[in-house]
Amino acid sequence: MASRTQKTERVVIRQAEADRLMAAHARFVARRPGGRRMVQRFAVMEGVDLPNQDLSDIDLTGSSLIGCKFDYSRLTRACLFGVDLQSSSLVGASLTQADLRGARLKGANLSHANLTQADLRAGRIAISDEDTRFSVLRHKVEAGQLDGANVTGAVLDRSRLDDVSAAAADFSECSMRGTKLVGANLKNASLRGAMIDDVDVTGANLDSVDLTGAVLTRVDLSAARTRDLILKGCLCDPTPEASQRAALLFVKLASHREWVATGGKSGEPAILDGEDLRPIAGLAGAFLTAVSARRACLAGVDLGRAALQGAILEGADLRGASLRKADLRGANLAGANLGQADLREALLGALPLKADREKPMRLDRASLRFADLRDTVLEGVDLDEADLHGARRDRPVSLAPETPPEEADGHHHAAAQDESFVVDM
Question: What is the pTM of this model?
Answer without folding.
Answer: 0.84
